[in-house]
Write a structure and sequence with these properties.
This protein is mostly beta strands. The chain has a single domain, classed as Lipoprotein localisation LolA/LolB/LppX (outer membrane lipoprotein receptor (LolB), chain A). The protein has 2 helices and 13 strands. It is globular, with a radius of gyration of 17 Å.
Length: 197
């Protein structure tokens, strides 16, 4: 694994993805250019699946804790792009989330029926745009976030996507943002895991 560093943040970020029909919890563990993403069970804190990402090399591995399997991931599809004519506005509102002042940004694109508001806090998180690009995310929340040019080292503490009628479609909400030292073994394939064939 590469030892390059894209940002100074090291620690744990927990957040929830909320839709009208379901809520999914995730945890990011970040150390330099190493990111571990856990999808957490609806009850308790055990991961139901994990994803290991090396932002330096682009190497990615998915883990199945239940089956003790790992599978190397390769991005074969070209990066997704935004269609239409998105309009970015930066209102003056500052929202305090988990003790962090967050600036409000809004991206609207009627052609794609998207109206997204982000509240971005400055937290030395240069890793995050690189992570979105490495994962090759195609959802609107990720694609439109990458259009924001003056956020520096920010991280979205809250993102709300609405349709053209103003109805909320998806909400991503950070529930914990903790800077702490993490150990490298948690970013490696656990012992006893077999490669999925």
């Amino acid at each position: 694994m590469s030892g390059l560093t894209f940002g100074q943040f090291e620690g744990v970020i927990s957040f929830s993805k909320i839709t009208p029909v379901d809520t999914t919890r995730y945890i990011y563990y970040v150390k330099g250019n190493h990111v571990r993403i856990d999808e957490v069970a609806k009850k308790g804190s055990a991961p139901v699946g994990s994803f290991l990402v090396d932002l330096g090399s682009g190497y990615m591995v998915s883990l199945s804790p239940e089956r003790k399997l790992f599978m190397e991931q390769k991005v074969k599809t070209p990066p997704a792009t935004v269609g239409g004519k998105p309009l970015i506005t930066k209102p003056k509102e500052i929202k305090n989330i988990l003790g962090t002042p967050c600036k409000e940004y809004t991206v609207t694109n009627k052609d794609e029926e998207a109206n997204i508001t982000y509240y971005v806090g400055s937290n030395k998180c240069e890793f995050f745009p690189k992570l979105l690009k490495t994962l090759n995310r195609k959802d609107k929340l990720s694609l439109y976030y990458l259009l924001l040019k003056d956020i520096g080292d920010g991280f979205p503490f809250l993102a709300i996507q609405r349709n053209n009628e103003g109805k909320e479609v998806i909400r991503l909400e950070v529930t914990k943002f903790e800077a702490k030292t993490l150990e490298f073994p948690m970013f490696e394939i656990p012992k006893g895991y077999n490669k999925f064939q």
